[in-house]
Amino acid sequence: MRHLSLCLLALSLTVACGRSADPSSAETFRWVRVAPVSVIERDSAGLSGTVRARFETPVAFQVGGRIAERRVDAGQRVEAGEVMFELDPRDLEQAVRVAQADLDTAEAELATAAAETRRNRDLLAREFISNQAFEQVELAERASRERVDAARARLEQASNALDYASLRAGQAGVLIEVSGEPGQVVAAGQELAVLAGDGPPEIEVFLPEALGVPASGRIVRPELLAGDLELREVAGAADPLTRTWTARYRVLDPDLELRLGSVVRVALDLAEGGPRLLQVPIGAINERGQGAQVWQIVEGRAHAVPVELLDLDQEHARIMAELPEGAEVIALGTHLLHEGMAVRALDRP
């Protein structure tokens, strides 16, 4: 038994020494499948866009208070002047009464001051008072008149505030969002809904920085092009996080039915000599909160390459990246990779 234990110990030491003699064998690698990058020869770039209204106006009260009534819901159509929300008017009505009382008092004081001016004008004509004394009487009348004007202005403000207790639609359209609820206390200017005004819709597109700003394009429907597009505006600067430019395109076909908020495919015309578009398998695209990327094998290790994703279908993705034509990218299992991981491509020695 003792002899057997010594033999086993010697065998274990021999295996351990053998392993330490070849350190490279201790590192494992992951098998991956690669696919070549292909260049797309096309005169348009396919992107996704969102159908938006030309004017999407936040709706809010001009005065604060407690919402007494809500008369609309999201998706509802409203006409210009239609009441959407009502505030509790009691405090506003009291403010009108106070302003009216102030105006009545000021007008009574003005009437007294005017009568005093007339009486003193007769006394001045008879030389019973001096010019200086009469000027003081006139000054008192002017001050009373100014107080009347100020009181009348405050009454008008209070009356306007009471009118503002009824929130009306400024234009005809469809309510995209409605957030105000009865009983909610709101401040002046607090958004309660978003009203999409009537009119031709627009397509909002986020343009990759390297793509430029196409001036025209078309909406892509299954197997056909429908609805020409024309650039209306583009953001003055790229988004600091996504590095994309927000652009709005007019839909030139007034009869084309588009639902607000729906996502559509668009084909934007590229200028001659424009950016090069690449196509990779959809499995090659990897997104980890820092933008889209693909993976290449560099000296036997995985290396991430950032790309700008344009659009994708069930099998392929269209991208823009600093990759040569024919370069190979990892096509499957990219979610399991990390920078510097040892990998080996299938079907390679």
TrEMBL record:
One example GO MF annotation: efflux transmembrane transporter activity
GO CC, any one term: efflux pump complex
SUPFAM superfamilies in alphabetical order: HlyD-like secretion proteins (SSF111369)
Family according to the record: Belongs to the membrane fusion protein (MFP) (TC 8.A.1) family.
Name under which the protein is recorded: RND family efflux transporter MFP subunit
Species annotation: Wenzhouxiangella marina
